[in-house]
Here is the input.
Amino acid sequence: MRNESELNGVSLLGNTGVKYPTQYAPEVLETFVNKHPDNEYLVTFTCPEFTSLCPKTGQPDFAKILISYIPREKMVESKSLKLYLFSFRNHGDFHEDCVNIIMKDLIALMDPRYIEVKGIFTPRGGIAILPFANYGDSQHQEMVKQRMLASFPDNF
Amino acid sequence: MRNESELNGVSLLGNTGVKYPTQYAPEVLETFVNKHPDNEYLVTFTCPEFTSLCPKTGQPDFAKILISYIPREKMVESKSLKLYLFSFRNHGDFHEDCVNIIMKDLIALMDPRYIEVKGIFTPRGGIAILPFANYGDSQHQEMVKQRMLASFPDNF
Amino acid sequence: MRNESELNGVSLLGNTGVKYPTQYAPEVLETFVNKHPDNEYLVTFTCPEFTSLCPKTGQPDFAKILISYIPREKMVESKSLKLYLFSFRNHGDFHEDCVNIIMKDLIALMDPRYIEVKGIFTPRGGIAILPFANYGDSQHQEMVKQRMLASFPDNF
Amino acid sequence: MRNESELNGVSLLGNTGVKYPTQYAPEVLETFVNKHPDNEYLVTFTCPEFTSLCPKTGQPDFAKILISYIPREKMVESKSLKLYLFSFRNHGDFHEDCVNIIMKDLIALMDPRYIEVKGIFTPRGGIAILPFANYGDSQHQEMVKQRMLASFPDNF
Amino acid sequence: MRNESELNGVSLLGNTGVKYPTQYAPEVLETFVNKHPDNEYLVTFTCPEFTSLCPKTGQPDFAKILISYIPREKMVESKSLKLYLFSFRNHGDFHEDCVNIIMKDLIALMDPRYIEVKGIFTPRGGIAILPFANYGDSQHQEMVKQRMLASFPDNF
Amino acid sequence: MRNESELNGVSLLGNTGVKYPTQYAPEVLETFVNKHPDNEYLVTFTCPEFTSLCPKTGQPDFAKILISYIPREKMVESKSLKLYLFSFRNHGDFHEDCVNIIMKDLIALMDPRYIEVKGIFTPRGGIAILPFANYGDSQHQEMVKQRMLASFPDNF
Amino acid sequence: MRNESELNGVSLLGNTGVKYPTQYAPEVLETFVNKHPDNEYLVTFTCPEFTSLCPKTGQPDFAKILISYIPREKMVESKSLKLYLFSFRNHGDFHEDCVNIIMKDLIALMDPRYIEVKGIFTPRGGIAILPFANYGDSQHQEMVKQRMLASFPDNF
Amino acid sequence: MRNESELNGVSLLGNTGVKYPTQYAPEVLETFVNKHPDNEYLVTFTCPEFTSLCPKTGQPDFAKILISYIPREKMVESKSLKLYLFSFRNHGDFHEDCVNIIMKDLIALMDPRYIEVKGIFTPRGGIAILPFANYGDSQHQEMVKQRMLASFPDNF
Amino acid sequence: MRNESELNGVSLLGNTGVKYPTQYAPEVLETFVNKHPDNEYLVTFTCPEFTSLCPKTGQPDFAKILISYIPREKMVESKSLKLYLFSFRNHGDFHEDCVNIIMKDLIALMDPRYIEVKGIFTPRGGIAILPFANYGDSQHQEMVKQRMLASFPDNF
Amino acid sequence: MRNESELNGVSLLGNTGVKYPTQYAPEVLETFVNKHPDNEYLVTFTCPEFTSLCPKTGQPDFAKILISYIPREKMVESKSLKLYLFSFRNHGDFHEDCVNIIMKDLIALMDPRYIEVKGIFTPRGGIAILPFANYGDSQHQEMVKQRMLASFPDNF
Ligand SMILES: [Ca+2]
Ligand SMILES: [Ca+2]
Ligand SMILES: [Ca+2]
Ligand SMILES: [Ca+2]
Ligand SMILES: [Ca+2]
Ligand SMILES: [Ca+2]
Ligand SMILES: [Ca+2]
Ligand SMILES: [Ca+2]
Ligand SMILES: [Ca+2]
Ligand SMILES: [Ca+2]
Ligand SMILES: [Ca+2]
Ligand SMILES: [Ca+2]
Ligand SMILES: [Ca+2]
Ligand SMILES: [Ca+2]
Ligand SMILES: [Ca+2]
Ligand SMILES: [Ca+2]
Here is the structure.
């Protein structure tokens, strides 16, 4: 079981006084320490409630965001990730930009061995868009290539 | 957030005065600038409302079109893509030809690093057809082979 | 759009005077010319209404047939393929034989770069059979191996 | 088996010389005689490939149309129904209007004992519309009420 | 357990010498005695492998047939029912006629308290047909009405 | 929480010394007392692992059995029900007979206010059978009629 | 086809200058005239992209909203309905309140013969809420009762 | 929007100091005031994470609990409902008892016009149990009967 | 079509005098000759009705068995395979043992180029087991490795 | 069939006197001997009823746990695995920690050639977490890499 010192830096989980950000807020992201650095393992988040705005028309867009990464020393805490994703609610950007921005913010936060971000956006005018971006350190360049290949959707 | 100059050349999105083309119209396609050229990422469109005509009988055909690509410097704007696909509405060609034509028009437009187009056509007389075509620049020849292999349908 | 000369040899599509064959009839198969020979692309047919007879008991069998191929110069016309498959209606053979015969007839017709045929037969006495056969020219021997590997069903 | 005189008036089925109408064309509808008038029975058509235009923007719309009726003396022939529905391809009307028009044309054609028409339109801007209309002669007024109640969608 | 005399009249089940009929053959239908005549109960058959021919073009049609009935004194044996339905394989009739004929043959065979027959035919040219017919003796007239109402398809 | 006296008569639950019966064994059924006799409530069991033998050929048959009832004073204990259903494993009877026998045994055991039994048998030779039987005391005759009506399968 | 005068009052459809409201805005709702007032018919909207805020914590909530109504003289235009529902984006209320407010606003707008509103909210802490409200004029009181009964979810 | 006085009595929502009860704890249930008492409407909760213990073996059981009710003056707050259901985690009772206890506790709390509780328990030894209980005041006796009838599972 | 000499050795298909074995009976397996030895092809059987007994408690277990192989000279006849699998009905072994035994018996029978056997067993006490075994001759060692890798279940 | 000496060490299966542990209890895990050490084969467990507590808030979490391994000499007995997983019921840890702990305990117990553990946790606040860890001996390092690659979820 995690003891209190191992929960150090986790301030948002179980804290309800925190205000939900209404503007893009990468600063809310928090981390905790990886207790199993000896083996490379994979952590995936699925966030089916992402919403942002169209940069030209202001129309709301909806997406499911999938984030997968292999941690190095730090791991993102899930409640802070939820608040961060919520902060796109009144932010306007193309779908392709949102996915790249989320990936870059998480790289800056955690310095993961490998990370990928995918957005499954709901259709507009009979067309849906699905952007996918990924990154790896020098030991994970082959994984970057393999996951790119595996991430082409066959039918969605 | 995209500023106005970064939206340069995007004339159709949010513009309702534009007329829907009734003949094959590759000239309606528009692009915007790729802001993340440093990492290769994947963008997929799904267009479940494609319809064209049989070149011999004039009978309407229906398909879902899937387009995936890795951008170089230009990216296709989704509303212009919708208008382009709509322009096949009164156009007669075999299913296999439509998929090849769409791929060639998007290569001419964007010069992508890699692109693939798949058509999932509804059955006629108890038989459905699914054509798949793909293309890559010299750095993506291995991806062309791998994606061809991965695109055989197992059961549809 | 295909012009008339490009539709040369297509006699069955849109022709209703043709009689439905009641015996195994490979001679009804027709082809048209491949207009995109420069890039290798994939065409798949799905035929969920295949029916043949048991060679020993005469009992009717039902299957979905999946055919995928990479064309060289000729392409099979889909209405003629439908009539060909219909000609098995009163033909008796084991499931494994039907799939091999269909593949061999299409190789003789089109000389494709690569082809595969799969039959998903409905269960008899609590057991279903699914045969899969494939073929490639000398440039596609690696594809023959890879597709064989990919075609093991995980759960059907 | 139906003999030739019982197929009287069926001119489109198996006739490929007929041209596909490009304007709203209720006159293509054909009927054949009901051979089982002694018992009331139900016939349903499902037409997943309906497409029309928005009356204000010209944008194409897509729908699945469901038609159910109890015949009196005449029955609508399915190939002529297909051509009729195809004639909406370049016609602009609200979804609610299309469904009412189809129902009224079929009442004029067949004088059925009971009929209902439902349209399941694909979403635009995150909202889908599903209109349902029905009609019965004086013996089927209770059926009109019961089917209206049963046709509220629970989740689509 | 059923003893031998209770299996009286069941000649086809477990008998492989019987030849599969190739023409419409209502005479192959067999019955066994209902051992629970004291309570009204319901028996349903589903037959997903029905195939017949178009009366005008000779083209094969495919359907799932659903038969439900409340037995009086006789019950139809399932293997004989299978052979009977198989005998439509080379028979040409409209979908609406097939369903009415099957129902009338089973009424003549068993004199059931109530019976209904539904055919779920695969689409032709983008349109599928689903006929439904039912019948009841004088004690089951309300059931005839209620089941007709319940058999309108909502979405298929 | 149930105290020990309220568990009186429950001998099989949590008792592993009991032998699995290999012949039809209605005597293994056990009951416990209904603690909520003031309100009529519904209990349903689903048993997807039922298997019996064909009375003529000895071939094994498989089914999902659904049992629903409104208790009076006694309730069937679920582990004893499992053993009882297991005892059909080497028993030969028509599907229609099995469902009637299970219902009659449970009426004799519990004297329920209402009970119904349905069997969803896997197909043989392209035909599946689904028998349904139900029973109610004099206060539940309307429920018997309504549930019979509601139990016609629409598509399975 | 609707002519221009029949499109009178429809100002938002095809008009992209309109700003998306950021506060609860029932005033954006628009209507058009019902051209088929002679028969009662049913119109359903499904809006899978509804989002509002928790009145106590400010946390975003997500829902699919289903609206069904029978029009009298006026019909709600779908693009204005989309903008109205979007105006809940920064509004805080219990799920049960949102559904009642939407229904009351639409009654005030259209005076429909019958209307119902259902919200299918995504789970929080392992519990999901689904509110349903309905209303009818004096001729539709039986429909109010029947639809309430039919709207209990069986499993969601 | 709910103001603060309308949130009176809601102490658990957004309050993380509250301890999760480890014993059956009906006292944690909280209510808020119904703001729409003029129209009868329906509220449903789905709780897929219910777990309790077998009263005889101590083995954990898992269920989805569905609760539907028509409020009178008080409505149960969803976070307090979650804590209440969590309090069964170390409680031993038969499935049929749990469902009856939950219903009786909610009647005592809210005095609803109508309420029903259903438990969909995961199978043990190939048998699953699904109990359903319901209650109504004198104006809702017909609803009690109708919902009982509608709650028989057809196939789960 | 297979002629009679090509059906040599097939004694069980269409023969109803054969008794169903009640003990483990590998001797019932029969083969026929492979008529297409020139190309390596794949044959898969799916047997969703497998049942055996727990070796310690005697409790019945249920599974779907999947068998895939590449034939050399002999092929297993499907009706004999059905009888063989049926012979496990009163046999007690761990799931992992059954799968290995079936694979070894089929290797001894056919000497296939490659074979794999998978068992998808229904859960007991909230845990399901899925064993997978495979084998290849010296030319198929790479296939053994690749199929092992591909057979890890992602979610079942 | 396994004889008694081959069941040596299996004490929990079919033994109901054993108490369910209420604290984390790796000591309950038991093994039996692998009878097929000559071929490498794969065993998978799926445990959809895992529940643990949040280390900070005490809130219960729910998951499906998937365990796959290739045995060396010892195999984990499934009932003891069930009891072990049950012992997390009152244990508080992050999802990522639980999956690593389960994998390490099973490595210590069995010394498998390869093992992987995946947890599919239900969402909290709109975000779900899915951790995956794996391990192999020196002969299975390539498998470790390949399975990591294959275990990225595409959509869950
Ligand atoms: Ca993928
Ligand atoms: Ca893929
Ligand atoms: Ca594939
Ligand atoms: Ca595969
Ligand atoms: Ca309905
Ligand atoms: Ca409904
Ligand atoms: Ca129905
Ligand atoms: Ca219905
Ligand atoms: Ca039903
Ligand atoms: Ca029904
Ligand atoms: Ca309902
Ligand atoms: Ca219901
Ligand atoms: Ca029901
Ligand atoms: Ca696989
Ligand atoms: Ca896999
Ligand atoms: Ca994967």
